[in-house]
Amino acid sequence: MTDGGAGDDGIGGYIRRAIRSAGRQYEQSREQFTTGRTVNRLPADEYGRAKIVCRRHADRRAVMLSEQGVPPCFDAENRDCQGCLEDIREGVIETW
Questions:
Q1: Interior CA angle at 47 toward 46 and 52, to 5°?
Q2: Suppose 80 and one of 4, 17, 33, 56 were both cysteines; which one would form an S-S bond, judging by CB atoms 3.0 to 4.6 Å apart?
Q3: Is 51 buried (19+), middle (13-18) or exposed (0-12) by CB count in 10 A?
Q4: What are the boundaries of each domain within the chain?
């Protein structure tokens, strides 16, 4: 005969894992929704490209942003690019 507590731990552990997984999925969805909503508010040219001012090269650019709001010129190791990406996601990027 098995101990009832051990079975509860297994079910309890399963429930905790399921709740954590649901929480992570919710947070990812919320972040994607917020990013998408912000990206869609940026001024765009006739081709749907976001009209942003590049921090790294200090010039105007019309770029297609990924679903996560990342421009194709993004360099993960460049501090200016990192700041630009944060500004895009927060909706405070300089535009033209």
A1: 85
A2: 56
A3: middle
A4: 4-90
Q: What pLDDT digit, counting tens, does each position of 58-86 carry? A: 999 999 988 788 999 999 999 999 999 99
Tokens of 83: 């700041």
CA-based end-to-end distance of the chain: 73
Residue 93's nearest CA partner among 81, 76, 77, 79 is 81
Would you say 29 and 22 are in contact if contact means Cβ atoms under 8 Å apart? no
For residue 54, what are the β-bridge partners? 59
Separation CA 49–CA 10 (nearest Å): 51
pLDDT value at 39 more than 80:
no
Query: How far is residue 7 from each of residues 13, 18, 87, measured CA to CA in Å?
Result: 10, 17, 49
